[in-house]
């Protein structure tokens, strides 16, 4: 019995140390200076986390001016995260997307509007059936101007809903591209049960309430 109690205390102590260590690493990520991604061929990049990246990819690819969406991981404190590793919640990363867009057609402001319009903004640590820190909502900013846009829209939404908005606001550091089989998932696997029952309904809910003139004719 004494050995069991000792083991329990040691396990609890080790667990608390891990949590404290991870909190320090997360704080370091949140307090870092943002990294600005240079424009390429007239295209900008923006980064968002909002539950399963399969769903978010489909949402952003339906918006005019968005040229490509890449699934990956961001917001964590480890290098080269994988799907399996991020799913443990220990890497600090969330499933995220890199949105490559033409700023002459669609603005960062509109991409942030789409972000909030495509999710349950009050759900903490997940979206729909996807739960856990790896599915938490994060908007990444690359400069103070973007940060100001995000915070103003978040504050306005909180006032409108009279509720706390779950999305965290992080300085962008690095985006890690996910495994090949995660890319273009909704388009390549339309009959997948998750896509049919979660991803497509989420996309349709977004399209139903977002301004039609901002959406592509077909997705």
Automatic annotation (TrEMBL):
Catalytic activity: [thioredoxin]-disulfide + L-methionine + H2O = L-methionine (S)-S-oxide + [thioredoxin]-dithiol; L-methionyl-[protein] + [thioredoxin]-disulfide + H2O = L-methionyl-(S)-S-oxide-[protein] + [thioredoxin]-dithiol
Entry annotated with the keyword Secreted: no
Entry-linked Gene3D superfamilies: Peptide methionine sulphoxide reductase MsrA
Entry annotation: catalytic residues: 52
Keyword annotations: Oxidoreductase, Signal
Enzyme class of the recorded protein, top EC level: oxidoreductase
GO molecular function, one term: peptide-methionine (S)-S-oxide reductase activity
Function: Has an important function as a repair enzyme for proteins that have been inactivated by oxidation. Catalyzes the reversible oxidation-reduction of methionine sulfoxide in proteins to methionine.
Name of the protein in its database record: Peptide methionine sulfoxide reductase MsrA
Organism: Hyunsoonleella aquatilis
Lineage: Bacteria, Pseudomonadati, Bacteroidota, Flavobacteriia, Flavobacteriales
């Amino acid at each position: 019995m004494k050995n069991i109690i000792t083991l329990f205390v040691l396990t609890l102590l080790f667990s608390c140390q891990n949590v404290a260590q991870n909190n320090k690493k997360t704080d370091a990520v949140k307090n870092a200076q943002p990294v600005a991604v240079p424009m390429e061929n007239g295209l900008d990049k923006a980064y968002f986390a909002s539950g399963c990246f399969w769903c978010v990819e489909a949402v952003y690819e339906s918006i005019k001016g968005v040229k490509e969406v890449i699934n990956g991981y961001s917001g964590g404190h480890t290098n080269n995260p994988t799907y399996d590793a991020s799913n443990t919640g220990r890497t600090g990363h969330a499933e995220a997307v890199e949105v490559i867009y033409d700023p002459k057609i669609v603005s960062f402001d509109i991409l942030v509007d789409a972000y909030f319009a495509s999710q349950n903004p009050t759900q903490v640590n997940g979206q729909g059936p996807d739960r856990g820190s790896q599915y938490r909502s994060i908007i990444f900013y690359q400069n103070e101007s973007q940060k100001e846009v995000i915070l103003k829209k978040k504050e306005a939404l909180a006032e409108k809903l009279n509720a706390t908005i779950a999305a965290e606001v992080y300085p962008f550091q690095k985006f890690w591209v996910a495994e090949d089989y995660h890319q273009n998932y909704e388009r390549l696997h339309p009959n997948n049960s998750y896509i049919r029952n979660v991803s497509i309904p989420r996309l349709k809910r977004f399209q139903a309430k977002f301004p039609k003139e901002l959406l592509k004719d077909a997705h």
